[in-house]
From TrEMBL, chains A, B, C, D:
It holds the Pfam family TetR_C_26. Residues 24-43 bind DNA. The keyword DNA-binding applies. Residues 1-61 form the HTH tetR-type domain. The keyword Hydrolase does not apply. This is TetR family transcriptional regulator. InterPro entries: Homeodomain-like_sf (IPR009057), HTH-type_Tx_Regulator (IPR050624), HTH_TetR (IPR001647), Tet_transcr_reg_TetR-rel_C_sf (IPR036271), YvdT_C (IPR041603).
DNA sequence: AATGAATGAGGGTTCATTCAT
DNA sequence: AATGAATGAACCCTCATTCAT
């Protein structure tokens, strides 16, 4: 594993454990098993690791979505699989997402966020286009614009459940069902 | 204006300008026109101004929504007004929301985020219930659960437009139209 | 004694003891009996104390010159008194002058040096003018321009003796005599 | 050019540009076009380049003086040539001299300063002796002692002009003339 | 209540030097 | 001899907080 990777993974660990604010660079390097100065060969500051962490998380998202997705399944089920993937990741890495969000908001790296998310947007756009081509979602929907709405909707739903609400299995299931229903109508699903 | 108010307003200004982390208490007191020590007569620490700022923002949200909302308008137009209100707030105060979020995330009181939004959630829930009662939105929609989905959806759409995309008036109008359309279908609007 | 004075005097002490390079700000504040941060309320950096030290030294020069100077003495003897004053100070504070010279050369404070020296230049100029007016030094001498030459000459002579040469009382006396002779001819002394 | 020479010349450049304290070894090696580690094959530390730089400067001094000097010229003109040489050197390389001085002052080898000047002192002493032998300067002058006075005088005059005063062509010419006059009288020139 | 000079612990960052290749 | 990535001790400076006035 390269030193850069070591730093990123160690940063995720320590940020999760202590929070961004309270994390010292010395904590990160200790956890990464490298020298203090080595950190600065790869990142100019503590917060500049954030985009790299974000990129790792988007990789995880794509992996999860692709793993769960079944080409042969019904559109309805496929959407549920996407929702499940995002929900699972939010649940599992909620603190990482929270710190990325906070960390990115604090710095000037905001614009990078879009670039980092690009692969997920592209994948979703293709998915919607195909479904629209075969007539399974309403024609009036502009897939490119809606892609961002849908991803934003699913993620904010997940955040509601796993970040803000006191987590409760039954409530989570109901909230997910409401979301699927909401999406069903919004997309004008026909199948 | 009381010194406490001066501090809160000055803190909002400076936090927006420099970010929470880079803001010094000395910046706040300079902007507020008071002495360094006076700050500590009203707030025990820099971050403890956050809840007061949050309260100011809740007021702004409710004021904006209520100001724009017209009881007599069509449901479709009322929804557009809500979207406009959230868009406006995001555009104007997105950095403030981000810093409250970040401040809250740092102090581990993430759940409080919900409290801040509570009045807006409640108002939106009532709005949906009424519309549902008169049969203007689909019966299958659970207003309470959907409230959070809708607000999350509108906000994430607003962020896409005002933060990540390079802002472009025409594109913004189209994206807003797509969102209204998306909501129209999701709610099963009948009128 | 004000904190600023404490810092200057402590800085002189520590610089003399350890040299500029090896002196830490923490050494200065320890010697001054103040807190680390207090230093930065008065000086922006370690080297920025240099001009203040230089000013103290020029004060010492003026005091020494004025103390030794006798209005009633012969011109020849008066010049010897000035030389004695500069020699004494260079001898006593050779290390301080060395560090000022080095410290000032290293920073951007070079131009300030002239301002700091201004009182000495002015005093010397008046001295020469008066002697010229009563016909004791050659008329062709431009007092203002020569003032700087003379002070430079005396100081460099002193440095030669006390800083560079291995000090030797007899040699010092001879070198001083040569300087007085040199000045005698240069000024065209008539009395 | 050998790597050692490359390092010395690069060090002079960078030291002049940024000052000794602010110069990093990495700056020197970058400018020299060699690897970081290579530096330490030739010099044990950053400051240890100083003597090598000093040696280069001695060469420059002697070269300049000898180049300008004309055996056949009048004594008066020869002195002007010497002044011109020192003025030129001060103007062109004053910062290098300052940094050598500072470097030496820091390492407590202040006495070495004299060694650097030794060839110049010797040359000047011979020059004065010859002039005295043929009766062109006063007999009472001790050439050895005066050598140091004269060089110190010329240098301090040059520093006044090129460093402290805001440089001004006309003023510089007058100041130089005053210096020549001063020297003329001090040496008791007869021709 | 208000002030603002003083505090000093703390952490980010630098950079001379090393060493495996 | 040459490299340059890695090291980690060293130190500056910041800034939240205190407290005498």
């Amino acid at each position: 594993m390269s030193k850069e990777e070591k730093i990123i993974l160690a940063a995720i660990d320590v940020f999760r454990d202590k929070g961004v604010e309270k994390t010292k660079v010395s904590d990160i390097v200790k956890s990464a098993g490298i020298a203090q100065g080595t950190f600065y060969l790869y990142f100019p500051s503590k917060l500049s690791v954030m985009p790299a962490i974000a990129a790792v998380m988007v990789e995880k998202i794509m992996l999860e979505v692709k793993n769960r997705f079944q080409d042969s399944a019904s559109l309805e089920y496929q959407i549920e699989q996407i929702v499940d993937a995002v929900f699972y990741l939010t649940k599992e890495y909620r603190d990482v997402f929270a710190l990325i969000y906070a960390g990115i908001a604090q710095t000037e790296h905001l614009k990078e966020w879009e670039t980092i998310y690009a692969p997920f947007y592209e994948w979703m756009n293709n998915f919607l286009k195909q479904a629209q081509n075969v007539g399974n979602i309403r024609d009036s929907l502009n897939t490119e614009r809606s892609t961002k709405l849908i991803i934003g909707l699913i993620e904010s739903a997940a955040e509601q459940i796993y970040l803000y609400d006191d987590f409760d299995e039954e409530n989570a299931a109901l909230q997910k069902q409401e979301l699927l229903d909401f999406l069903h109508h919004a997309l004008g699903l026909r199948k």
